[in-house]
Amino acid sequence: MKKYLPTIRDYALILASSLIQAVSLRLFFIPANLASGGISGIAQLINHYTHWPIGLMVLIGNVPLFYFGMAFF
Q1: I want to staple 6 with a disulfide (CB 3.0 to 4.6 A). Which of 10, 39, 40, 52 is the partner?
Q2: pTM here?
């Protein structure tokens, strides 16, 4: 079985999609008080009730997902 190695293109696509998500959160979802799905939606709900930064909550929520993704890849 051949092991998959990520390329520069993969990293560029991840960076571009993260940028699009961050812009959509900042410009559309947060001002309209709408919650998106997944970790970012949970981070928005936590921010609404505790005023903790959304970016920090997204980072904290994604760290376990990155770990499990690396462990089972």
Answers
A1: 10
A2: 0.75
Q: Angle CA(20)–CA(7)–CA(65) in degrees, nearest 5?
A: 60
Q: How many CB atoms within 10 Å of residue 9?
A: 8
Ordered per-residue pLDDT tens for the chain, 73 residues: 677 778 899 999 989 998 998 899 999 998 998 988 899 999 999 999 999 999 899 999 999 998 998 888 6
Would you give the DSSP letter of residue 22? H
Give residue for tokens 């008080």.
33
Contact assessment for residue 73 and residue 59, using Cβ atoms and an 8 Å cutoff? no
- Please tell me the distance from the alpha carbon of residue 36 to that of residue 45, in angstroms, as a whole number: 10
Q: What is the rounded CA–CA span in Å between residue 40 and residue 36?
A: 6
- DSSP at 37: S
Separation of alpha carbons 26 and 20, rounded Å? 10
